[in-house]
């Protein structure tokens, strides 16, 4: 039982109590259930000068700079604290854990015995002799407190991780002088830091490769291994769980699951004589018939062969006449000796006692049947403890058994509609006795050559056995068909099946509307925390309405009552889920961009002069400020089928090229980056990656530079190109600042893909691991990596460095997964980090970044988006249009916020001509309308301003600009 | 290939002599647990020491959560080590989880083991209708959730229980090694251990001298090589083939 804080505090002297209070604050802040020694260490380290810090300084290894080693210590403590699970109910004062209380007790005892203070306690004892309880009221001094904290194994482990030795620290606390001399003379190997394990060669570890590719349960795997042997290759499972393991294995084969058996004998068929064996006493004829069948099957056998499952051999023990069994055994023996080695046998016994009896009764059975005893000690199914296993902390993950069962089951059994139809058709043909190569052969036109061969085999087999009417054979054929179609389905329609697996809610079903309000700037922090539930639809953001006001001169504005905007799309839903979002409250000085359009070149010269201002402005939108919707790639035609990576290679490469070209057109300003990425991805696919991909198929890319939008577009496109769908993109913003810039949050919150993770680093890792277990084929986009706090850094660094890191994608059978974090470190952002933090930190962060960047497969540099030329382009277009509409008499003044909005829309859009269309169809039309309603013929100046009072109700297609402009 | 596993599992061969003695540590410790037993045998035995892959002294990255789901994978490791060291016959001393590993190894390769000495072995820890393993499934689930919730507290509570609180130095040693294990691995291995059922398999052990069940009085729950090395060494001496 943990001890209440007040009790513990009573045992401590003032300084020690203060440390305890600090530790409690630490525990509370991390919402831990208890305060432990680790929290004390954390509190002690937080103090600029504490006993512990001093002692550490004196005892530290000379191999590293003190700053570095302290940093390591802080990290280690941080990591250790992160492993402590978070309690659900927040406690005001997390009580003192048993181990910490024990440490306090130890230090009390220590202090009582200590020579310096011994006499004091003796005195105290004498004076308070009447009150015996005073004995226990020894107030622990900080020094003794620290000493006993250091005895706590959890603490010494953490210190050890950072290269300190508790023994030396203790000596330093007790005797500073000798310590310092001691440490300078001792040469010590450099400490082992958490991250310095990278060069372990894990590839040479035996079995690890096998283990990585398999998803089968251990028992089935062992059975498969035995089947491969040249002698003693017929498994006899023995043990309490033998029948479990037997059933599981046989069922897998019957269902035609691939991957259960080793490659050499994959596709083994099953013939069950279980029933006949158990009945063999009563009818020998049945047995005869069965054996004949097996012989026939064996003669016709094309594939790897058959496995005869004999079931529980206990049946032999119950038989009265030994002769019957002996004849079965010898007949079976005759079959097993067949030259092709295409027949196996499998059976089980649930106890060693039965086995002994079996051997006693039929001494030759083990030799005759070439049996291999396989003790089964663990259940393959059922009440398995492993099932509820949840890895700690989220950094270490394993795909749960549940998951692997599911995937093996669904992978083969779930066909897409198309394939299922064809499969069913073939099955019905088989049942009717019709020759069956028709449908599949048509299908095979699209198949790769090797697949076609495999298929011909299946068809042939089907034909040769056609004459036989036996149910078993039919079964086998149906199974084979099922397997064939599941193979075809997996290879051809992988994307469609995987799409079904996506658990994300369909955007359209959860339509929400965002009401944009200027006042509610503080709503954003709560937004992303619950990303599970708030999946935003792709069209949720309605841009700010733009109001076009016309005025004869600048002073007097004639407000013309506006054109009614379209009705809310899906308005009922939108009202229910109305949410307020912060809007850009620009703090930057107002920039005047009265751009008079429709005039001559002198105006663009004017614009050029204003460039500095504008530039400042563009920087603003980089992060910023814009009430624009983020509509990433939403209108793009899905290319999933053409991108499906299971295609034949040549075709695939061609497709790939196309896809990359399409992307390069869309994100035209990052052509070079796209080239680099496409090269790296294809290199890595061919196994030529710099670091990781050659081993696991994971590709690491860092995206360096500004242009958040471009990075996102590219990441999403990579997901589509590599895995066939944008839903394969997992995106995380690692910036751990508590205060999110309202500008960024607008963009981020509005797109469901960009989860802003701010409720704890543990969550990011957990969540990421979780998502990756669910969707192993994913592109992971990590934004603001340089802002990630330290733990996350360590974890990612470790993972990027280590060849064999434990995320669930590691063991996946599909080698082509791509892990592609985007490391997003715009220059401006790094600068902010620098100025905010101590020098120490920024230094470290740079070191860390450099290190990380060294370990990715490729660094991709992003250029800043060129707003200037875009502005020019837009203005020219508008200008040209206006001339058509109103000749030279019409002047348009565009408000700077509107201009920003237009620019941002152009940046974000995926539609190639979307903006042009908008200018033509929306802007010009409205101006024409406005002009007519004003009924003026002389020179007119119109002003395009942002109107805050209204929600925009319709949006131009592919563009986050309103579909209509109000004329006032 | 072979070298890396031997290195990864810190395989050591110490002492000299014709006879080979394999000391395999139990759950929650590492080969250092045999430290005080070792001096008794190095003079006339070649002693093979290694760490289980789940031990805190082994790089946790080697622990493959998919592979080590049953004890058979541990058996693979043991046999691999013995083969790599070209050991043809040996005496095997295994404590707790290693006792089970030894049983399974000797079923698979009877010729390899002259004798098994099993300390604190149990075929099954969970109670059944007609079997008393000592633990109820529900109890164990509680322990597991406690482990998940507070690893440190569990270690602090478990170490004195497992070793016996009257031998504080041993407690410290035990909790040190226990703490060295990464918590998720500890939990995973505990679950593996509680999944095991050797009933129906024990009879397959063919190693001639059979197993000396280490349930010697007083050793039921504690690693005796920690709490009473001298006593255990004597017992072992008696048990070893002469």
Q: Low-confidence runs of chain B (pLDDT<50, min 5 residues)?
A: 208-221
The total beta strand count of chain A reads 18
H and E order of chain B = HEEEHEHEHHHHEHH
Strand content of chain B: 5-15%
Helix content of chain A: 40-55%
The number of helices of chain B is 9
Give the averaged pLDDT of chain A, no decimals: 61
Oligomer: heterodimer
The count of DSSP E runs of length 2 or more, i.e. the number of strands of chain B, is: 6
Structural classification of chain A: alpha/beta
Going by helix content, strand content and strand pairing, the class of chain B is alpha/beta
End-to-end Cα distance of chain A, whole Å, is 73 Å
Count of helical segments of chain A? 42
Overall shape of chain A: flat
Distance N to C terminus of chain B: 35 Å
Percent in strands of chain A? 5-15%
Short description:
Chain A is α/β, with parallel strands linked by helices and 968 residues long.
Keywords:
heterodimer, A: about 950 residues, alpha/beta, five-stranded parallel sheet, 42 helices, about 10% strand, flat, B: about 240 residues, six-stranded mixed sheet, 9 helices, AB hydrolase-1 domain-containing protein (chain B), AB_hydrolase_1 (chain B), AB_hydrolase_fold (chain B), SL_signaling_regulator (chain A), Clp R domain-containing protein (chain A)
